[in-house]
Amino acid sequence: MPRRGERKPRVRSSAPEPTPAREPDHIGIRTLTWTRRGVKARRTVDPAKYRCTTLAAQLADEWITYTRAMARTDGGDDLAQAVRSFAKFVDRHLPTLGMDPADVRLDGHEVDLVEVIHAWEEDLRQQHGLGSNSPHVKTNSC
What we know:
By secondary structure, this protein is mainly alpha-helical. It contains 4 helices and 2 strands.
């Protein structure tokens, strides 16, 4: 038994190594299926529909991971809609700035995604009107 004031040295675990940035395993359709009240439902996001396929695939993977982790009973429908809406906007917006939508990715540095999200929110405000809360809700979902 240790004497008063003696302590065992603590062995601290080290933080795990960060995973290296990599391409998504595939650019196939992301589908989330769940059963609610005995009825099967599903939501899908097809990254191949967009020129920013890598970004769309990364966001769709995050949508599925988050929805499963939070055990959302609605399948994260608002998140899936936000992913599709943002990918459409990126496809339209970046060519006007002289950038290729295919170069956009979450872990890339070629495109400032914060500025693109701000521009998307402004675009949503114009579509939904100034008094609408939809732009804020959609941009917070993404």
